[in-house]
Amino acid sequence: MKKLHIILLIFIALSIATLISFMGNLSTYETIASAKQKEGKVVTIIARLDNSQPMTYDPLKNPNYLSFHVVDTVGNRAQVVYHYEKPYDMEKAERIVLKGKMSGNVFDITSKDGILIKCPSKYKDDPRSASNNLSQN
User: What is the per-residue pLDDT across 48-73, written as a single tens digit (0 to 9) for each?
Assistant: First the structure.
């Protein structure tokens, strides 16, 4: 074999190894029911805040404990425990992306970046701003 062929084979092998390593980082969104089946594994859930249940956060007692309830897109409900300070404007969120592990009926988030708040658009409920943007374009 020529040197060029050997170099090309090494390059192809490295490319395949790189692609396989990236595939391990791909995550899909789960429902609460499927997360319960994968108890102990890190999963990502998209849900909305369940306002019918109380939110527990007392910064004087423990600023790194937040407990609330969510409802996923299918309608399943779960309690969520977040071990960091409460995110700003969480009550206004349309959707919440949660990354953590199920432990029984509790979804446990132990990393600071395990919760992402999806807030509503500032133009959604203001038709005047929306029409001004359309007339400027």
Answer: 998 888 889 888 898 889 999 999 88
115 part of a folded domain:
yes
> What CATH number is attached to the domain comprising 59?
2.40.50.140
pLDDT digits (tens, 9 = 90+) for 7-59: 999 999 999 988 887 776 566 788 888 888 988 888 999 999 988 888 898 88
CA distance 6 to 73: 51
Q: In Å, how far are 45, 118, 123 from 129, measured between CA atoms?
A: 33, 21, 6
Name the residue range of residue 114's domain: 26-119
Rounded CA-CA distance 135/137 in Å is: 5
Residue 126 included in any domain:
no
Q: Write the burial class of residue 58 (CB in 10 Å: 0-12 exposed, 13-18 middle, 19+ buried).
A: exposed
**Distance (Å, rounded) from C-alpha 134 to C-alpha 30?**
37
For 17, other C-beta atoms within 10 Å of its C-beta total 10
